[in-house]
Structures are given as structure tokens and as C-alpha cells.
Amino acid sequence: MQKFVLTMIIASLPFAAMSRDYFRHPFPKDVPHVLLANPTVANLETVRFLTEQGIFRVTEETRFVGVFHAGQAYDFGKSEVYLREHPELGFYLHEVRGALDDSSVFGENGCSAEFRTLFEHSAGILFFGGPDIQPRLYGEENQGSVVTDPGRHTFEVSLLFHLVGSSRQPDWRPFLEEKPGYLVTGFCLGMQTMNVAAGGTLWQDIPRQVYGKEGPRQTLETSRENLHRNYWQEISDDPRLMGINLHSLRFTGHPFFPKQVKVRRQSRPLIYSSHHQSPRDVGQGYMITALSPDGQIIEGLAHREYPHVFGVQFHPEVPALYENRELWKFAPEDTPRSYHLLIGSRSVRFHRKYWDYISECLEKSIHMHNR
């Protein structure tokens, strides 16, 4: 029995060694690769849903490679197990292992060579939501940030700095100068990370810093349209309360949404909002494309030089927006309904158009990459 167990362990070692080393081993260079930052099981399942439903359109030969740093807090062994159980997905993992800390984010560091490898062999990258960035990365003291995975933020901010550049290191030549059509997009924390990497700052606690509210009861005095997550959960034990809010979006005079995404500038789609932080000072190269209903919170950014670099503060990737799932309510007296029904068909179409645009940008990036 002991010999059998030892044999099984030895047999599994090659898989274990290669499962986090996609770009360290021979891989097909004639197929498109798309990077997924922070490839948790939840994020992998989200991309699986979006592609299988045709919401995020990719070619059959496209390979998604989840990228992360060895210093992150999440146990990516769970992602390895998930991908082992679903080999048909064509998803892979790559762990970056170079030395990296907060002091070396904005400049050449122990990960720079691997960052270049990731860039040279991919057509784009997606950055997902998550917990707060350590404020020292944008030169501030902690004023309400709850940082649970600093290793993730150090990695993602530095990777984005290498890709797009920053006012914190103006002499740096961004990788995208070589491939300006490369796709970079982020959702919620993803957009915050894009902004911080470019030298921008964040509101660390919107209710307190923007609206002067302390605690959940005071925060709920703010009009619902201007709440960016649901604070009823903190004062009620109703199990049907959603942790998020669905509020409308206001487009600016920037042409991104009306011209690129092709939605009417006057439209006010409902979006899935779950955050207490947002960009404050805008980072180098970015322009504001969308705002909260009262104009206080930045909801969208797009880069002025790189046409396929843009992000949003909301969550267009959430599967429950596209089909009826669990029933939720915002306040205790509300009637439970699915997110899909709550946002309505017009807002669903807006989200699908947004993914159509991401898909088009990826297609163009792949075409440019293959020339």
C-alpha cells in the first residue's frame, strides 16, 4: 500500500510542476492567449459562463491563462483542482515567482522578465474585483482600507505599470508602446488597480470621505441611487438581503460609451455595484467615461493613447445579470427578485453590448499580434 501511494505521488509530480508553469514549458505560439489576473475558482467559472453563453466571444482555439504571484494569499491549489476536473475548458495557470515588494512596484524588478514573457505571448488581460489595495502603493496612510491580500495588489499594480506606464516613473517605456492595440480591461478593483498603477489615488471609504457618513445607519440616509453597495446587511439579519446595489450609470462627454460601445449617451442603465472605494485622482493617460448618478464617483476610465485600455467600477461579468438565479432584495420590506429581473432587459442589453466591445477589442488585438 505504501509503495502504491508513493507511486501515485511521483506520478502526479509532473502535473503539479507544469500546472503553474504554462509559459515555462513548450506551448503553442500560433493560438491566441488571454491572461486572467487572479484566477480564483470563482473567476474561472465566471469566464467559463461568459464564453459558453456567447457573451464574451472568443475563438475555439483561444487559451485562457490565469496569472498570479507566488506571494498571493489565495490558495491557487483550488484552481489547479478545478482545471484538472475540467480539462475541456482549455484554461491554464502560470505562477510568477520573482522577488517583488511594495518598494519595487514602479520600476524594473524581479518579475519584469516574466511580465514581458506574459505580454509577448498574449493578446490581452482581464483584471477582476476583490479586496482593498494597500494605500502606501498610492502614497497615502490607511484611512479605511481593509487589506487582506497585499501580495495580489503588489503583483497586479506592478504588472499594469509595466504594461501602461505611470506618472510615478515617467521615464518608463510601457510595453504597450510596442503593441498599442493590446487589450487591458478591469472590473471594480480591476479599474482601481489600473488607476493606482498609472499614478492615481483612491477614495478609501466613499460613505465617510465623499458623503460624510459614519456607520451603516447614517450611510443608508444617502439616496439609494448613490449607494455603491448595500449597508442593510450590517443592521439586519434578513438572509435575503443582497450585499450589492443596482444603481444607474451616467455617461460623460467622452466618446467611449456612445461611439465605441454604441449606447445612447442619454441612457441610464442599471449596473451591479459592490465597492466602498473608487478612483479619486485620475492616473496618467486616463479619461473619465462614466460617473455615478450624482457625479461624485468615477464609474469608467479609458486611456487616451491606447484604444483597448479601459475599465469600469461596476461588475458586468456577474453571471446572475444574464439569467434568472437566486432571489434577493435590497431593503427588508422589498419583494425578492433576481438581479436579471431587477435590472431589466434594457440594462441587460447594455451589459451585452459592453462585452461585445471587449470581444471586438480582443479580436483586433489578436489580429495585430499575428501580423
Q: What is the H/E string?
A: HEHEHEHEHEHEHHEEHEEEEEH
Strand order of the largest sheet: 3-2-1-4-5-13-12-11-8
Using the coordinates above, name the CATH class of the domain at 18-205 and 275-318 and 346-370.
Answer: Alpha Beta
What is the CATH architecture descriptor of the domain at 18-205 and 275-318 and 346-370? 3-Layer(aba) Sandwich
Distance between the termini: 56 Å
The outline comes out as globular
* pLDDT averaged over residues: 94
Looking at CATH, which topology of the domain at 18-205 and 275-318 and 346-370 would you report?
Answer: Rossmann fold
- Uncertain stretches of 5 or more adjacent residues: 1-17
- Secondary structure class reads alpha/beta
Radius of gyration: 21 Å
- How many β-strand runs? 13
- Report helical residue fraction: 25-40%
- The CATH superfamily of the domain at 18-205 and 275-318 and 346-370 is identified as Class I glutamine amidotransferase (GATase) domain
Strand fraction band? 15-25%
- Specify the biggest β-sheet: 9 strands, mixed
- How many helices? The count is 10
Give the arrangement of secondary structure elements:
Blueprint lengths: L1 H17 L14 E5 L3 H12 L10 E7 L7 H9 L5 E6 L15 H9 L3 E4 L22 H15 L18 E5 L1 H9 L4 E2 L2 H4 L5 H5 L25 E4 L1 E2 L4 H6 L8 E4 L4 E2 L6 E6 L6 E6 L5 E4 L26 H32 L1
Parallel strand pairs: 1-2, 1-4, 2-3, 4-5, 5-13
Antiparallel strand pairs: 6-10, 7-9, 8-11, 11-12, 12-13
